[in-house]
Amino acid sequence: MKPVAPLEDDDNPCRPRHFKPTLTAPSEGDTRVNRTLETSRNRLLITAGAFLFAFTVIGLRLADVTLLKTPDPEVARLGQPVAAKPAQFSRADIVDRNGVVLATTLESSSLFANPHQIGEPAKLAKQLAKILPGSKESELYAKLASDKSFVWIQRRLTPQQELQVNSLGNPGLDFQREERRIYPQGPLAAHVVGYTDLDGKGLAGIERSFDAALSQSHEPLKLSIDIRLQAILKEEIQKQIDAFTAIGGTGMIMDIKSGEVLSMISLPDFDPNDLNTVVPETIFNRATLGVYEMGSVFKIFNTALALENKTATLSKMYDISKPISIGRFTIHDDEPIHHAVPVAQIFAVSSNIGSVHMVQELSPEIQKDFLGRLGLTHPAQIEIPEIGAPQVPNPWREINSWTIAFGHGIAVSPVQLAVAASAVADGGILRPATLIKRPAGFVPPGQRVLSPRTAELMRELFRYDVTDGTGRKADVPGYLVGAKTGTAEKIGAHGGYMHHGNLSSLISFFPMNDPQYMVYVIIDEPHGDRNNKAQASYGFVTGAWTAGPAVQRIIARMAPLLGIKPIEETPEIHRALTADIPGMGPKVAAN
C-alpha cells in the first residue's frame, strides 16, 4: 500500500491527512505580541553590535600600543630600578651663597586620636608617654579620654616614633602626613634664617620677612651668608666669651663694596629644630635688635666729621691734659696724657678729652645731621624683622654732642654701626647692607656722606690705630688691617652706668690700601682675671684685649678661605697709609 502524501496546505506532516486546519485572520493581540518580539530582537542586535564595536576598538588600540609604537620611556622603565622623584613641597629652601642648605622641608607624620574609638585611655596614655619624650602621661590621658572625636597627640613625629606607635595597633590612633621645616645647620645661622611655626608660617628672621615668597616659589632663596665664615666667626667669639666669662657676644663680616653680610652671629644662640628649648636670651638677636652705647668706636664719626668740616687736620694739636667738667659730670681719659697731641694720636690712643675738644668746634645740629645721614638715628634697613630702634637724645643739646663724641648718650645696633663705619672706610659712600646674595661683581649705588679726601685720611687713621694704637692685637701680617677699638660702660637695669659691666668691641677693615672686608666683634660684659691664662690680658677687659685677638684670628682664617692673597707693603703703599705728621712714631698702650 502506498504512503499517503500530506495535504499541500498543511504545515504539520504529523497530522492525519484528512485533517485540514481552519484558516483565520490574526487577532489584534497577536499583532502586539509580534511587534514586541520584533522590538526586543532589534534592541539585542544593536546592543551586541555596540559591544562588538567597543571590543574591536580596544583590541586595535592594544595592538597599536604593544606591537606598532615605540614604548613610552616611563612605561619601558617599569619593573626597573629608578631614582625616586623629589617631592614638591609648598615652601622653598633657603641656602647660603654657595648653595649649602640652611632651611628645607621634609615630609613628617603627626599623630592624632579619635577618643571615641579608644577603649583603655589610661593604658594607652602610659604607652604613648614612653614613646613620645617630653609628653606627660596625665596630659595624654586627658586628651584620650575626652569626648571629642579628634585631638592632636603630637605633631612631627620621627620615623622611629611613628613605627613604635603603629606597633601598638590601636584603632583610635592615626597619622596625618604633613610638611616639617628643618634646619640642617642647627644654631649656626638661626638668628638670620629664623624659623616657622608647626603649620609652616614664618615667625622670625628670613623665614618671616620672605614668608610669602618662600610659600609661592620652589626656587631656593640664596642668602649672602657664607656658612663657612659663620662657623669661624662663632667659634672665635665663643672662645672669648668663655675665656672672659662674658654673658654673650655678637659679630659680623661684610663685603663693604657690595654691602653683602657674609656672616652674622649672636651668642648665645638657639636651635630652630628644637624650639622647646628656646629662652629669651638665646633668641634675642644682638646684632640687629640690640641697641647699645658703643663707646670709642664712635670716635670714627667724630673724627671724620671734624676733618670733613675742616675744623681739624691730622696734625692739629689739642691739649688733653685736663679733664672736662660740666655740671656734675667729668670727662676724663683712662690713661691721662699731660700734654697736647695731634688729632692722629687722639684717635690712636682713644682720648675722650681730645674728642670732646674736637666736637666743641662744631654745632650739635651739624653732628646730628651727619649721624642721621650715616643711618645712625633711625632703624637699620636690612631684610629681617628683628630691628632695634636707636636711642637718640631729644632735644640734642651741647652736652649730648660732647658725650656722643666718645660714644655715650646715643645707643645704636651693631649692624647700624657696621654699615656707617664701612661707609667711612669705603671712600665715603654709604651702601645698604643686605642678607640676600647679589650678582657677582654688582656694586649697589650708594650715597656720598664724606669727601674722598676725608675718607682717605680716615683710612690712614684706621691703619695707624693698628700699627701704633689700641688696635695692635688685630693686626695680621700681609693683610694691611685697619681698626678702631671701643669700650663702653653699660647702663644697668635700674639706670646709671655699671662700673664692671662693659661692652668691648673692635671693628676692622682690610686691606686698607683698598678696603674690601669688614670684621666686627663685640664681647658683652667680659670679666677680667689676672690669673686666667686663657685671657692673656693681665686682667684688662677693653675692646683691645677682648675683641682684638678674636678679630685677628678671624681674618687670618677667612682670608685664605676666600682666596685673598697677602699683600706686600711696598714703599708706595706704606707712604699712602702713613699720615705724614710729627709725633706719630711713638707706640701707645692698648686700651
Automatic annotation (TrEMBL):
One of the GO BP terms on file: cell wall organization
Residues that span the membrane, as ranges: 44-63
Cell compartments where the protein resides: Membrane
Pfam entry (one): Transpeptidase
Keyword Protease: yes
Residue ranges of domain Penicillin-binding protein transpeptidase in the record: 249-532
Region (Disordered): 1-30
An annotated GO cellular component: plasma membrane
Keywords, sorted A to Z: Carboxypeptidase, Hydrolase, Membrane, Protease, Transmembrane, Transmembrane helix
Domain of life: Bacteria
The protein, known as: Peptidoglycan glycosyltransferase
